[in-house]
Amino acid sequence: MRPRLTPGRLYAMMSVEFQEARSRHCIGCIMPMLTHLDGRRDDDRANWELEPMGHRCKACEASVERIFAKYAALYDVKDHSAGL
Fold first, then answer.
1. For residue range 31-84, what is the model confidence (pLDDT) as tens digits?
2. Entry pTM
3. What residue spans define the domains of the chain?
4. Can you give the pLDDT at residue 63?
């Protein structure tokens, strides 16, 4: 079982890493927000995903994918609607 973080804490950690990795020439890309999944599809998958987002440059897209994969393997999010 993965440690559970609040969505805000997890997003803050990913956003900081994204800001450090983001291309110095890019000013428009941001880390997309995350959303809790209602049910985990299998034990290896995190209980959250990133929300779809508009335009991202190719360099930032690769950074977002790498950061998502890293944190999805490490953390789940607390589902506040379930009182957890």
1. 999 998 876 556 688 999 999 877 778 888 899 999 999 999 999 999 766 554
2. 0.84
3. 4-82
4. 92
The phi-psi region of residue 13 (left if phi > 0; otherwise alpha if psi is between -120 and 50; otherwise beta) is alpha
Residues 6+ apart with CB under 8 A from 41: none
Task: Quote the tokens at residue 53.
Answer: 């987002």
Structural tokens at position 1: 């079982």
CA angle 51, 32, 34 (to 5 degrees): 50
d(CA 55, CA 62): 13
- State the sign of the Cα–Cα–Cα–Cα dihedral 45, 48, 54, 58: negative
**Which DSSP state fits 13?**
H
